[in-house]
Amino acid sequence: MLGKQISETTGRRILRRVLSSAPLEVEVSFEDSGKMLGVGTNGFGTYKASVGPGGALFGEGAGAMVTEKGEMITWEGSARGKLKQDGGVSYRGVLYFQTASKKFAQLNEMTTVFEYEVDAEGKSVSKVWEWK
Description:
By secondary structure, this protein is an all-beta fold. 0% of the residues lie in helices and 73% in strands. It starts with a strand and ends with a strand.
């Protein structure tokens, strides 16, 4: 069951490179900012995506965010996605967070789901919910 929304960020793609052309596999790095559990964050991450039969995307990635008080939260995740007609991409997936921060310790035990939208210019919006 979908729980409360715990995060929302906006960002931009800073690097995209082709790892393989048959099948197509790309690596993407990004930076973002927003809120995690109501606290301001700045983050960054990298994911690798491959195009499967029929054009479906599969991605796996990792990253980190730093809160406005200097607390570090890392994440790993995977997602299924699709190319949009305007040249952007859309992903839905699962994220797992890790942190040593007592304030954010609840993240260590959460499974979360996310939506990640990127437009043709590389601007992104991410939303994360607890999955109960």
